[in-house]
Amino acid sequence: MQPSRTLRRAPLILVLAALLGACGTPDERPAAGPTGSPVAAAGTRSLDPTALPPEPSPTPLPPPTAVEEPAPATPTPAPELPTPEPGLLPPSPTPLPAPALPPALIYQRPNGSLWRADGASPPVQLDAAAPLDASRTTPWAAAPDGATVAFVTSTGVYGPPGDTPPAIALWLVGADGTNARAAQSLLPPDGIDLTPGSEDAFTLLPALIEDQRLAWSPRGDQVLFVSAHEGQVDLYTAGVDGSVTRLTDTPALETGPVWSPDGSLVAFRFASGFGTGAGWSGAGLAVIPPAGGAPLLSVSEPPLANGDTTTYIGELLWAGGDTLVATLESPPVGGSEVRAYIVSSGQSLPLVSVTRGMLGGVAWNGTYGVLAIAVERADTPEDPGLFSWRPGESAAVRIDDDPAAWPAWAEDALAYSAVPEDGSRGVRIWNLGADGDIRQVSLEPAHMPAWSVDGQVLAAGDTLYTREGQVVAVLPGEGVIPLGWTPRGLFFTRLDETLSGRELWLWDGTQANRVDALHERYELAQVTP
Fold it and tell me: Could you give the CA distance from residue 112 to residue 175 in angstroms, rounded to a whole number?
């Protein structure tokens, strides 16, 4: 959500295809909604695949226009300010505001470099002034206003030993590529041991790079990050003014921090070791004030409802200002659970528990105060499905009996993929209207469905649909996956002509154009404000 997405109106110029018939009559759809029955009394029905009318032939797109590989844009230097006369300099000068820029997609090229593309001008490289190990993924995060981007670079860390000394650092840069500056070196004073199998390889590198999750405050004035520059892995903030503040001082490995919506709390995961794939040792979570200090909530190795011990915490998200939701797991073959923690009281509430299986994702709707929980696979038939929960409720509510994955909210509707082994598969939309109906819009599940900024068009795979299931357009290419919408249209990725690499494309409502080459970790690309 992490993963939390403001919607804006996208211009859609294509003529809508012929209207689809409604996906079954009302009595053929599962009657489910916010007032549905609790999990213990689940009674929804699976959708009948024959109820989905055949899709009309969509209006074809004009042939895509190939464009040349964009050259790096040269950042425009900031204008020099006149030197004030003696005595006229204010005691606390106010920094110049960052230039207003349109919403854009931030992504990595195959060589690992970090770029920003808005669809109106050539892409701008954000890490041109920063050293990096080629082809590595770069942890990054954009401030809420989109004006500043934080990212972590590394050199001499990966690959065979060379002449370049190891270095890992946090950088800040303007979204237009200007004012790049190193905010903090992240390595401990005595360096790092890169010997294969060393403790640093299993703990320090994952903490500083692979599991690094940068998180900006709601005001956009400071970013959370993990560093070891004072001798051990701890949690810090870096301000846009260059200040660095330590928040924790523990022997644990902190990771994955998230701010509460009002910025009054910081939650994070921790472990004593990240392991080699069978889970973490000493896995836990904590909540602290934004300036650091004693934890307001701390939980270590919480037991799951089936008796397993939590060895991995996959996601943290806030459901309001006082409720933290965590996905707790016991890999590789243990149970999974979604649990809510009330910070002020210390109470915890299991929302959905899976004895053996896999969660399909969680998504929070801050406008309506609803949490969606998808369970993709489970050993027992009563476990999988789509559930909803609101703070204050004692139990989650079952919305759909079929296994579900990839929940994605518009303001008042949830898109998700139904993935039963038998029966009606595909993308469905749950509307939070008076009747809370579920409508099936496709017969194929979709990876990473994405709503337009006005919440009226859904990109699912290579097809764009209205809320009613009408086909708006079919995107060109193989392996199409939507990445995100801006007012200029939909950014998506597709396989290149060799079917061995990825490309970034933009559909502007009329046609699709190639923007750039894209790193294979396409899921790291995100739209910024």
Answer: 18
Q: Quick count: other Cβ atoms within 10 Å of Cβ 158?
A: 14
**Do the beta carbons of residue 316 and residue 258 sit within 8 Å?**
yes
Provide the pLDDT for residue 63: 43
Collapsed DSSP state (helix, strand, coil) of residue 55 = coil
Rounded Cα–Cα distance for residues 505 and 514 (Å) = 4
Distance CA 484, CA 529 (A): 11
Name the pLDDT band for 257 (thresholds 50, 70, 90): very high
Phi-psi domain of 182 (left: phi exceeds 0; alpha: psi -120 through 50; beta: other) = beta
Distances (CA, A) of 234 to 240, 249, 258, 283: 20, 6, 15, 15
Q: Tokens 């993308």 map to which residue?
A: 427
- pLDDT for the residue 94: 40
| Token pair in block for residue 18 | 């012929």
**Is residue 35 classed exposed, middle or buried when 0-12, 13-18 and 19+ CB atoms within 10 A define those classes?**
exposed
Mean pLDDT of 15-25: 33
Identity of the amino acid at 77: P
The two beta strands, 471-474 and 463-466, are antiparallel
Instruction: Give the span between the Cα atoms of 429 and 410, in whole angstroms.
Output: 10
Which pLDDT tens digit goes with each residue over 46-90?
444 444 444 444 444 444 444 344 444 444 443 343 333 333 333
Cα-Cα-Cα-Cα dihedral sign, residues 273, 2, 388, 447: negative
Q: How many angstroms separate the CA atoms of 402 and 425, rounded?
A: 9
Question: Measuring CA to CA, which residue among 43, 19, 32, 56 is closest to residue 414?
Answer: 32
> Does residue 332 have a cis bond before it (omega within 30 degrees)?
yes
Neighbours of 516 (CB within 10 A): 21
Cross-strand partners of 235? 226
pLDDT band at 99 (very low <50, low <70, confident <90, very high): low
Provide CB contacts within 8 A for 505, sequence distance 6+.
64, 475, 477, 491, 492, 493, 494, 512, 513, 514, 515
Q: Coil, strand, or helix at residue 269?
A: strand
Q: Is 61 exposed, middle or buried (0-12, 13-18, 19+ CB in 10 A)?
A: middle
The span from the CA of 11 to the CA of 99, in Å, is 24
Contact 299, 286 (CB under 8 A): yes
370-423: pLDDT as tens digits: 999 999 987 665 678 999 999 999 989 999 999 999 999 999 999 999 999 877
Close Cβ partners of 266 (under 8 Å, ≥ 6 residues apart): 224, 235, 247, 257, 258, 259, 260, 287, 288, 289, 290
Contact in structure between 347 and 324 (CB atoms under 8 Å): no
Q: Which residues touch 269 (CB under 8 Å, ≥6 apart)?
A: 254, 255, 256, 283, 284, 285, 313, 316
